[in-house]
Amino acid sequence: MRDHLGNFMVAGNLGFARGVLLLEDCEGTFTWKVTGTGGDDVHAFATAAAFMGTNGLQLKTRTTGATDGDYLTVGKSFGFPESGLLVVRARLCIPAQAVVEIAAVSLTIADGARVYNAGVHIKPNDPGMYYVDVAGAEVAMPALADPIVDGSFYTVEVVVDARLMQYVEIAANGTRVDLAGVAIHDQGALVAKSVSLQLYVEAQGAAAAQIYVDSVYVGEFLDL
Question: What domain range is 136 assigned to?
Fold first, then answer.
């Protein structure tokens, strides 16, 4: 099983390719939905946040009145994937780990009957990476617990089966963790079919926390 496009950083307009929900190179107009603790937070395309090209996505919690637990989330919503198999892949960087409690990449999936959440939580000061289980609790993945270097980009990938509402795998730092058959979080609400992606940063201590994200892909996995 693999996603049908493989590495997506290729020439050409793939915006309407079958199964592609999002190709975000951060070079166009910022259209993400923003929530958080407000103030002078930063949610914008910025040169300092680029992995490749001119810009990346900079997410920084407020500086004025900064406090422990400040957070910033950006998100995008899509239609439900045709195949039911879904992957999100992004390049992520934490410039200063000491002030970041959590960086997260997550998917909210509504199948028309229930709402579910799947994702990876990165806690650079543990250090550790966690997936969100069926009860909404964090479960450590020791294979992904290698220390993260300040200022280094690495790939984070979450793969889920939206037909069975189960994980397939999570990957980071070149290592994959097989989570086949592990149920994702059942949030229990009723909404129409949809998928949304959230990118999240939370501050540790009374200082602004930030992450950089670039080359974001959301799309289908196909049975081959």
Answer: 2-6+18-222
